[in-house]
Design brief:
Blueprint lengths: L6 E6 L3 H9 L5 E5 L5 E5 L10 H16 L5 E6 L3 E7 L6 E6 L8 H10 L6 H6 L11 H12 L16 H10 L3 E3 L4 H17 L9 H29 L9 H29 L1
Antiparallel strand pairs: 1-3, 1-4, 2-3, 2-7, 4-5, 5-6
Helix pairs in contact: 1-2, 1-7, 2-9, 7-9, 8-9
């Protein structure tokens, strides 16, 4: 993979204020901007795949982590590309991600059923929107891989997604970064665990306050926290093992660990914060 031509965009169906603190836990410098009335976009700096990590595996792990961290009903769509392929990964909570791949020349190599699942998970129209997505899975000599992603964004405009000016699929990470800076995007950087945990705890409190007003929903934060920690620990260990293999020169089979290790770390942090929040609320109610 030629890292100089690789790039990615992560769209989340949530406001920037909701996305910011979970994005910090990924420990990757990114820029954050609005992408429609109910959407945000993260523009990664690109260092995570400069050493040979496949861009799709890196951002796939981030998408899973963000989708769980920002909460139910807020899917994350990662668009990615390199010198050989383009594609997307859609993450929705704890569900298995769905994705599609094209070669750089636009040749589809994904499964048609993935588009139907993609539309269903985003709540798109099962007839009109699925029909609009169908041409993206057919051969078209005039459409390159980047054109396929632009076509995908055009369909998602019906769901409120608006890619900011200058953030075009197919551009390398450094060009996307420069374009996002011109738009006045917010900088999202790792500020250490203390600040990250404080920020994330505040976000958790805000998102959970309305849940806890109803007695029937009292179990939700604790159950979700336990599930996140239980899923995050093995995921982080698995990602770290893959990253170590890549560091030992085991090739593509050991790559892609960094993104999944980050996903596991976010799940663990988010779950721990939910459990801590629930314990504190329980003490206050005694």
């Amino acid at each position: 993979m030629n890292a100089t031509v690789a790039g990615a965009l992560l769209f989340c169906r949530a406001e920037p204020s909701v996305v910011r603190s979970p994005a910090q836990l990924l420990r990757e410098p990114q820029l954050l901007a609005p992408a429609g009335a109910e959407w945000s976009v993260l523009v990664p700096e690109g260092a995570a795949w400069e050493d040979g990590e496949p861009v799709d595996r890196v951002v796939g792990g981030w998408a899973v982590a963000l989708a769980v961290a920002v909460g139910l009903g807020r899917p994350v769509l990662a668009l990615w590309w390199d010198a050989e392929r383009t594609g997307f990964t859609l993450a929705t909570g704890f569900r298995r991600p769905v994705g599609y791949v094209w070669l750089a020349d636009g040749t589809p190599v994904g499964e048609d059923e993935a588009m139907t699942t993609f539309a269903a998970r985003l709540g798109l129209d099962p007839v009109l929107d699925v029909q609009a997505l169908a041409p993206l899975t057919r051969d078209d000599l005039d459409s390159l891989g980047a054109d396929r992603l632009r076509g995908l964004i055009a369909v998602l405009a019906r769901a409120g997604l608006e890619a900011p000016r200058g953030l075009a699929p197919g551009d390398p990470a450094d060009r996307l970064h420069a374009a996002a800076l011109e738009l006045g995007a917010q900088t999202v950087e790792w500020a250490g665990w203390r600040d990250a945990v404080r920020t994330e705890l505040h976000a958790v409190e805000e998102s959970l306050d309305h849940w806890l007003r109803e007695p029937k929903e009292r179990i939700a934060p604790k159950a979700l926290g336990v599930a996140q920690v239980a899923a995050g620990v093995p995921l982080a260990l698995w990602g770290l093992r893959r990253a170590l293999r890549a560091g030992e020169g085991e090739g593509a089979g050991g790559r892609g660990g960094a993104g999944w290790a980050a996903a596991g770390a976010v799940l663990i942090a988010q779950g721990a914060l939910l459990l801590a929040y629930e314990r504190r609320r329980a003490r206050e109610l005694r």
